[in-house]
Write a structure and sequence with these properties.
Elements: H1 2-14, H2 17-20, H3 25-33, E1 39-40, E2 49-53, H4 58-69, E3 74-80, H5 91-109, E4 113-119, H6 128-131, E5 141-145, H7 152-167, E6 175-179, E7 190-193, H8 198-208, H9 217-227, E8 237-244, H10 245-249
Parallel strand pairs: 1-7, 2-3, 2-5, 3-4, 5-6
Antiparallel strand pairs: 6-8, 7-8
Helix pairs in contact: 4-8
Length: 254
């Protein structure tokens, strides 16, 4: 069976099938990359982690439990300002609301560091000048959103980050961690048991998504955390995919 998979993989690579497939090419990549470990992911206080969030709240959707467990390990960088996220408000008003929510969550959790850039929603692709200043030289892990989030700023973030990896100093041991924000990952490498911290994650999510304006949204996000535990001995977990730098650079962009 191993020889058959090897021959199929070689055939796909030779004919550049992945580059020709627009639907689920991410799934093809991992089917033939055989990434299916699904082990428990843990960090400690000495681990240096950077989260690259495409909008205020994305980091809490996919990583709220992990952040709450290890706040002093995380520096969180949010690139867009939420200017189109609050219905019924002007861009400036919406941005002010979302930035205040971001600051409130970061201060409540007491993370090591955080910053939100004043970049208008849907324009991140035009701001490589901001992205190229990020220092990843001491990072052990950099967390990025799911490539299939179907969000123009997510794709811009990932493309900018690929360029950053090619041009900036980083540890040879650096790992890239992909998390779930707008859409679930198609397959998982690792999970984080957040059962003991789930109520904290709910409270932080409600700061971004109050029930009166976003009915049931927090319950749906937490529901995914519960679903991810169907094959694990926990009640709630967050799903992740982890890559070394070369693997990440090989991921086809949409």
């Amino acid at each position: 069976m191993t020889d058959i998979k090897k021959k199929i993989t070689q055939l796909i690579q030779k004919n550049q099938v992945i580059n020709k497939i627009n639907f689920n090419k991410f799934i093809f990549y991992f089917l033939f990359g055989l990434k299916s470990q699904f082990k428990q992911f843990k960090i400690n206080m000495s681990t240096n982690c950077i989260i690259l969030s495409q909008y205020p709240g994305a980091e809490m959707r996919g990583l709220g439990g992990l952040i709450a467990q290890n706040p002093k390990s995380f520096e969180i960088l949010c690139f867009t300002n939420g200017s189109s996220m609050v219905e019924g408000y002007s861009g400036v008003e919406s941005s002010n609301i979302k930035k205040q929510q971001f600051f409130d969550v970061m201060k409540t959790l007491r993370v090591k560091g955080y910053k939100i850039f004043d970049i208008e929603d849907k324009t991140l692709k035009n701001h490589w000048d901001v992205f190229k200043k990020i220092d990843i030289s001491e990072a052990d892990y950099v967390f990025v959103p799911n490539v299939y989030d179907n969000n123009i700023d997510t794709i811009a973030l990932l493309k900018h980050f690929k360029q950053l990896l090619k041009t900036k100093e980083h540890k040879q041991s650096l790992k890239i961690v992909m998390f779930e924000s707008d859409f679930p990952l198609c397959t998982l490498d690792y999970y984080v048991d957040i059962s003991t911290i789930i109520e904290t994650k709910k409270k932080m999510l409600l700061k971004y998504y109050p029930e009166d304006k976003f009915p049931s949204l927090v319950d749906k996000i937490i529901g995914l955390n519960a679903f991810r535990c169907t094959s694990n001995e926990c009640d709630y977990c967050e799903g992740l995919m982890i890559f070394n730098v070369d693997e990440f650079l090989d991921i086809p962009m949409i």
